[in-house]
Write a structure and sequence with these properties.
The complex is a heterodimer of chains A (217) and B (315). By secondary structure, chain A is an all-alpha fold. Helices cover 62% and strands 0% of the residues of chain A. Chain A has a domain at 64-87 and 98-213. Helices cover 68% and strands 0% of the residues of chain B. The chains are: A mainly alpha (217), B mainly alpha (315). Chain A: It comes from Platysteira castanea.
């Protein structure tokens, strides 16, 4: 090929470099390796994480696992189950006597967002989603109370059942508030804990009120 | 040299400022000399190095520097825009800077009318207390609505409670701020929100007591005493910040009327009326409140039917 004989590189401009593809070292990269595992393993790992957080809520100790690996699966499951159980508490079929599904959903999430913003504005060190995660998980005792209330209401709707329901809901409400306070109040300056606890108290009070006044027809 | 010349001879002007023409000329000359020195220096350095076309390198370096500069500016602008979006929450931060003792003190103070109205009273521009009071009022209202078996068809209990309380706080605050602007009162929007919010403390106490103990006379006593005290406090603070009798009257009359009427509305609209204690409303007229649960569309349907019948009769 005579035409190509003239191709030459000017001697002034040196051309140098390396044409090597860096072979990635086989470091244990988790994201890469979890793509190949079976779906059952992924689901079981997430379920175990959610279950561990449930245990943390029921026995609130000063562990940071709930805060460090936050996830919103647990709060979603709890919120949906609570809203489903609160359905159908109305006098007629067309009536709005009880809270609708959307109402419960919006109250829980909107209330959690307001409390989170409030604690951040008061100078809290916890992040937005961590706080949402804690508040959502601490709805677990109230969901248990709702289950118990529905079972008690199957037996009858008299004064004794109301007293039982009142005691159960009251105890679970106190448990929820104490559990969330144990996690959230630590992130505040010590003299402002009361300012953060009060909205949490109101939030769980409203949810407990919705549970206690639920009467299926 | 002669009078009547319209041209001002600048050279003869005694101008001692630094920007006279002579000085400008001097500065310009000095700058040109410096540039020439720099060019000479660069050229000299360029001659020393071999094989480097300094002119081209100077240009390429300058271009590269400009591109890098532009990229940095764009990046900085994007980052500052994102930060200002996040920093919107920081605008509210100074209004939440309170201690629990301060909140408690302000709650108690909101029931004590001030005596000195001759010089402006201090209003704390804080939003934590009022916000918490509005939410507490929502919770109390829900409790009252449930115990009175209020059934609201075209909405939800929760939505009505939140809408009523927040609507009152924000709406009446804005309206009063507008009136204060018209009447030349010295009060800012945040202060107005704070004042009205703390005034809701009296409402919370009254409703909390009277939703559980259903005595009409008890409610009226609470309405006058507790509602009256918190209204007097707000009115006194506003009066101390306004000049002029007419303006004071307008502002305080409006605020007092709205505040007291709101408490009355909250009590009667969402509260079970027990039949035997209707002594204040009995008379030849039909009592406006029925004993059954409030059922809005039935009333509106009845109104529609009677109106239609009336129109049909007249036609």
């Amino acid at each position: 090929f005579p035409g190509l004989a003239d191709v030459s590189i000017s001697q002034d401009i040196p051309v140098e470099g390396e044409i090597t593809v860096p072979v990635g070292s086989h470091s244990p990269d988790e994201d890469y390796s979890t793509l190949d595992e079976p779906v059952k393993d992924t689901i079981m790992r997430d379920l175990k994480a959610v279950g561990k957080k449930f245990v943390h809520v029921m026995y609130p100790r000063k562990s940071s696992a709930l805060l460090r690996d936050w996830d919103l699966w647990g709060p979603l499951v709890l919120c949906v189950s609570l809203a489903l159980m609160l359905q159908g508490g109305s006098a007629d079929s067309k009536d709005d006597g009880g809270p609708q599904f959307a109402e419960v959903f919006v109250i829980i999430w909107f209330g959690a967002v307001v409390i989170t913003l409030n604690s951040k504005l008061l100078g809290g060190t916890i992040s937005f989603f961590q706080s949402l995660c804690v508040l959502g998980y601490c709805v677990l005792p109230l969901t248990v109370a709702m289950l118990v209330c529905r079972l008690v209401l199957l037996a009858g709707a008299g004064t004794i059942s109301f007293i039982i329901r009142l005691i159960v809901v009251g105890a679970m409400f106190a448990w929820s508030t104490l559990a969330s306070t144990a996690f959230l109040a630590d992130s505040q300056p010590p003299n402002r804990k009361a300012l953060v606890v009060y909205p949490i108290f109101l939030f769980y009070f409203v949810i407990s009120w919705m549970i206690l006044t639920f009467t299926p027809q | 040299q002669g009078g009547g010349s319209a041209v001002i001879d600048m050279e003869n002007m005694d101008d001692t400022s630094g920007s006279s023409f002579e000085d400008m000329g001097e500065m310009h000359q000095r700058m040109k000399e410096e540039e020439e020195e720099e060019a000479e220096g660069e050229a000299g350095a360029g001659e020393e190095e071999d094989g480097e076309f300094l002119g081209m390198k100077g240009l390429r370096g300058q271009l590269g520097r400009q591109v890098a500069d532009q990229m940095w500016q764009v990046g900085k602008r994007q980052a500052s825009r994102a930060f200002s979006l996040y920093a919107n929450i920081d605008i509210l931060r100074p209004y939440f800077d309170v201690e629990p003792v301060q909140v408690r003190a302000r709650l108690l103070e909101s029931m004590i009318p001030v005596k000195m109205i001759n010089f402006p009273q201090k209003i704390a521009g804080e939003l934590y207390g009022p916000l918490m009071l509005v939410f507490t009022l929502v919770a109390i209202l829900l409790h009252g609505m449930k115990t009175s078996d209020t059934i609201i068809r075209e909405g939800t209990l929760m939505g009505t409670a939140i809408g009523t309380c927040f609507g009152y706080w924000l709406g009446v605050s804005s309206f009063m701020y507008f009136l204060a602007y018209l009447c030349n009162a010295q009060i800012t929007m945040v202060q107005m929100l704070s004042l009205l919010g703390y005034g809701l403390f009296g409402h919370c106490i009254t409703l909390f007591v009277t939703y559980n103990i259903h005595f009409h006379s008890l409610f009226y006593i609470f309405w006058l005493v507790v509602g009256g005290l918190s209204t007097l406090r707000m009115v006194a603070v506003l009066v101390s910040r306004t000049v002029g009798h007419t303006q004071r009257l307008i502002l305080c009359g409006t605020l007092a009327a709205l505040h007291m009427l709101f408490l009355l509305y909250l009590h009667f609209a969402y509260h079970k009326v027990v039949e035997g204690i209707l002594d204040t409303l009995e008379g030849p007229n039909m009592p406006p409140f029925q004993r059954v649960a409030r059922d809005i569309p039935v009333v509106s349907n009845a109104v529609l039917n009677t109106t239609a019948k009336g129109i049909a009769l007249t036609l």
